[in-house]
Amino acid sequence: MKTEDLIAGLALEPGFPGPRQLERKLILWSGGGALMAALLTLLVLGPRPDMDQIAGVASFLGKAGYTLALAGAGLWLARRLGQPGARAKGPLLALSLLLVGGLIATVVELALIPAGERAGQLMGHSAMICPLAILGLGLLALCPAMIVARRLAPVRPAAAGAAIGLLAGGLSATAYGLHCAETAVSFLVIWYGLGVLATAALGAAIGARVLRW
Amino acid sequence: MEDIDLQIQSLIALSQTGDRAAYGRLLALMAPRLRAYFSRRLQDPADAEDLVQETLIAIHTKRETYNPALPFAPWVYGIARYKLIDHFRRRGVRRHVPLEEAGEILAESDTEAGATRADLNRLLARLPARQRGLLEDVRLRGLTIAEAAPRHGYSEGAAKVALHRTLKSLSASVAADED
To answer: What is the per-residue pLDDT across B59-105, written as a single tens digit (0 to 9) for each?
Structure first.
């Protein structure tokens, strides 16, 4: 085919869309999945028992703030990695700050309590279930987000997949927080963090296959 | 450079309002620049033209990923470079494609030179290797016939004849192309 004919053919379709279309679609689709995860959490696992008290709501909101920030970093990172010629410095810096900040808070929290109580504080009552639940619920947000992400143009598909996984994991961790009554910062950073990380790893594995273009 | 940037930005702005002619002009503006980019990096002009088309299609299918607040050149360059790397990977060639200044894709390749160069490569590719080598040495590298002849196994007299015939067949195929 002659290149001129190709151009004429392509120009039959609409040209550049308005700004922020992709962000909107990513938020909409992954948000839809997150809503399903929240619904599933409330119906199957049930809300955290202290949800009718101020302290419980405050703890939920605090944890949600951290996990939503992780999701936001994932969204920002995915958008940058999916845009040829763009730099990912900003979102990577934000992500590092969240992770390093979380680890520092963990160390401080554990250092402030007696040595004998540290293991109990860190393990809580649901350390083994938490990452698995977040990974499982994360699938509900990961699948729709990955479908939208196929519109991205990542030079490194696995990295972009990991960022999509980070978005999905952050959202599902937020949803899981509706059920989980653990209040320790160290529990949040380590076990929620592990669940989000597992979702990101799954996203990387999937992304390496489906995000090529 | 400023001029082309301005042109591109206004074409994008127009195409965002649904002006398809502007979008077509933008793609048409990119084609010769992509052609120059790829033909400088690939031996075979047909490969280069394939990549021009693949890149134009990618620009089209991935146009959502362009953020209008950012410069256009790095985005196009990122796509072109990805397609070039992909091309080498498919061929099983391990080749490093260095990251260059993205602006170059718009700047250094002027339309006419790019198109002419691609045409010339396409014509030269039709010649037998020996004649092509002789022609390139004499006409493009500036060697004398006496210098170039032994490199391709010609005597000086035979080289003169071969060169004459080569040029004749080249102009015949240009004429055939223009029909």
So the answer is: 999 999 998 888 888 899 999 999 999 999 888 877 777 776 666 66
A10 touching chain B per CB within 8 A: yes
The answer to whether the Cβ–Cβ distance between A19 and B64 falls below 8 Å is no
User: What's the rounded mean pLDDT across residues A116-130?
Assistant: 90
Query: Domain extents for chain A?
Result: 21-210
For residue B15, give the nearest of B4, B27, B3 by alpha carbon.
B27
Describe the crossing of helices A129-149 and A193-210 by its angle, rounded to 10 degrees. 30
**What fold is seen in the domain B2-113?**
Rna Polymerase Sigma Factor; Chain: A (1.10.1740)
- Closest approach of chain A CAs to the CA of B53, in angstroms? 6
Domain ranges of chain B: 2-113, 127-178
Is there a contact between A22 and B64 if contact means CB atoms under 8 Å apart? yes
Lookup result for tokens 């004749």:
B168
Q: Identify all chain A residues contacting B79, using CB atoms and an 8 Å cutoff.
A: 84-85, 153
CATH 1.10.10.10 fits B127-178, yes or no: yes
* Complete DSSP assignment for A149-193: HTTS--SSHHHHHHHHHHHHHHHHHHHHTTT-----HHHIIIIIH
Instruction: Determine the distance in angstroms separating the CA of A58 from the nearest CA of chain B, rounded to an integer.
Output: 38
For the stretch B3-53, pLDDT in tens is 777 788 888 888 888 888 889 999 999 999 999 999 888 888 889 999 999
CA distance B145 to chain A (A): 38
